[in-house]
Amino acid sequence: MEILTPQDLKNKFKDPWIAPYKKVLTMVDNSLVELMEYHPCVSGSEWMIYQYKRSSNLVLDSRRDGDRHTYLLKVGKSDMSLKPSLNAAGIEEVSVEGDEVRVVHAGLAGAGVGAAMCRGMAKGVKRIELYDVGGGSKVGRAAVITPLLEKVVLGIDDTDTKDEGATWTLANNVGIELSEMGFEYLDHITVQLYPHNPNKTQNCVAIALVFAIKPGEKDKLVEKAADILKKHSLSDKTALAVLKGIQVPEKLRSYAEAAKKSMITLEETQKTAKELGIQLVEVTGAQGEIGALAALGLYNDVKEAVKVYY
């Protein structure tokens, strides 16, 4: 075994058949790990999404959005049997050790090159344990070690008026400003709510912003987000909702679906949030809590989030 940092790998492997990944992040929620990788290719990387879920029982789900891969993993070991074309690449082991996450990748031929050298050069990687250099007919195996991060989703609603403003743009600018403070801004999801709501400004949407943060920084993230919103919001009804963790509780999902199809009261919203232990933050007013909570329930289902129900 050889232990190498990203810079060590760049110095050692300058071959034209190496394409470094851009970034690797790992978020932990008890025994679940969400691995997010930014691949050097775009549609060509769909092969990895298919192979990883097919080859390893540690991969509970996998999806691609542009050049970004997201794998939902469980902690443990997998007894993979690699076969060319059929089961060519996957994850052998996932473990959380202190403030680090260790993911062992293995693959045949080019997938082996990706397992070690390509991933190991990415931003966000602390080091790799290189077991076997892949390429050609050889198996490549390496453990990629990254800092342990936590996932936090902020639901935002009611920042504009009937005359000016736009919640989706303000929310994105909030995300950008927070990223400049050191919080990893991962995604922005527009969630369509009940179109016949008489209180809407126009399109009736709420926004979910997704972040990967260092452990213990949730309160700081929420405080900074609230400060930015308070400074720029045009509404006296702006509110935040805060979800920590990877999974969406079933009751939260049901609440979000109901908010797309019917009117929801503030009382219902606050009761649901309390039952689920979800923090609500009144920035300039409480009314926005309804849409903010709904945005959390569909942040991980973009296609459902944008649907309109008449």
Write structural notes for this entry.
The chain folds into 2 domains: 2-148, no CATH class; 158-305, Alpha-Beta Plaits, CATH 3.30.70.2200. The chain starts with a strand and ends in a 5-residue tail after the last helix. Helix 4 crosses helix 5 (218-232) and helix 6 crosses helix 8. It is built from 9 helices and 14 strands. By secondary structure, the protein is of the alpha+beta class. Strands 1, 2, 3, 4, 5, 6, 7, 8, 9, 10, 11, 12, 13 and 14 form a 14-stranded mixed beta sheet that branches. It has helices spanning 6-12, 46-55, 110-120, 167-180, 218-232, 250-261, 266-276, 289-297, 302-305; strands spanning 2-4, 23-29, 32-38, 59-65, 68-74, 76-77, 89-97, 100-108, 127-132, 139-157, 184-192, 205-213, 239-244, 279-282. A hairpin with a 2-residue loop joins strand 4 (59-65) and strand 5 (68-74). The mean pLDDT is 91.
